[in-house]
Amino acid sequence: MTPHPYQDLTPSQLDTLGPEVRRIDVREPDEFTGPLGHLPGAELVPLGTLEAAAASWPREQPLLLICRSGGRSAKAAQALARGGFRHLYNLAGGMLAVREPHAPQR
Questions:
Q1: Is residue 22 part of a domain?
Q2: Is 104 part of any domain?
Q3: Which residues does 43 contact at the CB level (< 8 Å), separation at least 6?
Q4: Over the chain, what is the mean pLDDT?
Q5: Is residue 105 part of a domain?
Q6: How far is CA 27 from CA 33, 37, 61, 103, in A?
Q7: In this structure, are strands 43-44 and 22-25 parallel, antiparallel, or unpaired?
Q8: Whether 21 contacts 63, CB under 8 Å
Q9: Residue 105, exposed/middle/buried by CB under 10 A (0-12, 13-18, 19+)?
Q10: Total structural domains in the chain?
Q11: Beta bridge partners of 88
């Protein structure tokens, strides 16, 4: 078994995900609409409500978990893995990494 029940993805790998991957943002509503914004197509499911919300979701559906820095989404991925989900991705670095300006190439 792998050390993590999920795979970390960097913001540059987001384009590799197909349309079948559901984007779940586990931040609070004020963060979702705040300065960092959210990914296109992301659904807001705050971490505290995630397990109840996910109870009716198909276990085979791939899920990308998103938060501010990657910590809460990693916890969310672990909780979902315990719930039987098998295709989980964590956005490493979270929305901070998505919004971080890329260093100019020299």
A1: yes
A2: no
A3: 22, 23, 24, 25
A4: 93
A5: no
A6: 10, 11, 21, 27
A7: parallel
A8: yes
A9: exposed
A10: 1
A11: 63
Residue 32, domain extent:
7-99
Q: Which residues contact 28 (CB under 8 A, 6 or more apart)?
A: 46
CATH of the domain at 52: 3.40.250.10
Say if 106 falls within a structural domain: no
How confident is the model at residue 104, as a pLDDT? 52
Can you give the pLDDT at residue 1? 41
Per-residue pLDDT of 32-83, as tens digits, reads: 999 999 999 999 999 999 999 999 999 999 999 999 999 999 999 999 999 9
106's tokens: 């020299």
* Number of helical (H) and strand (E) elements in the chain, helices listed first: 4, 5
Cα angle, residue 68 at apex, residues 25 and 89 outer, rounded to 5°: 55
Q: How far apart are CA 52 and CA 85, in angstroms?
A: 14
